[in-house]
Amino acid sequence: MRKRARIIYNPTSGREALAHDLVEILGIFEQAGYETSTYATTPAPNSAADEARRCAKDGFELLVAAGGDGTINQVVNGIAGLKRRPRMAIIPAGTTNDYARALRIPRNDPVAAAKVVLKNQTVNMDIGQAGEQYFINIAAGGLLTELTYDVPSQLKSIFGYAAYLAKGAELLPRVKPVQMDLKYDGGHFTGKASMFFLALTNSVGGFEQIVPDASLDDGKFTMIIVKTSNVAKMLHLMTLVLNGGKHINDPSIIYVKTRKVVARALDNRLMINIDGEYGGDAPMTFRDLKQHIEMYADTDRIPDDAITDPELQNAERNFVSAVDQLPEAKADSETE
Fold first, then answer.
1. Name one Pfam family in it (predicted).
2. Active-site hit among 16, 208, 277, 316
């Protein structure tokens, strides 16, 4: 039987440029060896996640998330908790498209993005778990992160991450430190901070220098704690970010790698941002799930230090595939 792929697309993402390319995109995935069908998400809660989970349980080999980072997040949430997870591909059609930027997938041409599958290059990507939710790019807490909730969707669609910058500059004078307690591998921070965030890739809000040494598959978050809320100091930190990621050496920054974080508020509410959306309040535990989902990517263009040896990944993948074919493994999967 031919392998099956399902394109789960958001018909209202970004500039709505995807729909008229669908026929050509279907042909590209057919050329790659996938019998391909489509599903348009609906306004119903968890529409993309529910469809992704259904397809995974039905044995589809590939899920294609076509939309913004929110669509990718939903598809990942649909399959991350399953033992058998299909491969994923991405066709960006949102505004900032951080995840596509990290995977070096074309962000302004859906057809070119689809053609990445023809290179047959993949990365076994880390994803994050926050309570019962999963995330693909960032989790954060603190008053500074609330700017993402206040940017109108129409403004984001027109101006992309520039809208976040404008809103962030407006919000800075109102930022106050939050008393928080953060436990992480080998460390413990207790005190005032304007924000903390955990990154899985090097692309955050359209910037690639906030987390300049991020790895996509090492099993560790990059955690940044911003201990200052002084406006002048915050502006200085932004300057250091734009000047080659030099903020990571600033004394008002804690910059560490960690597999797990436990976050608690010590006085006021600590809202948690999951991939740009409100994800609940602390206390919350975050875990990095190492190499959890295999994603098509243009690995020729990803920096060498951002992923482990592709040949080693292929060897690991072939081993897992061979184990899955053993009678004992098949019997185990049938009883799930």
1. YegS_C
2. 277
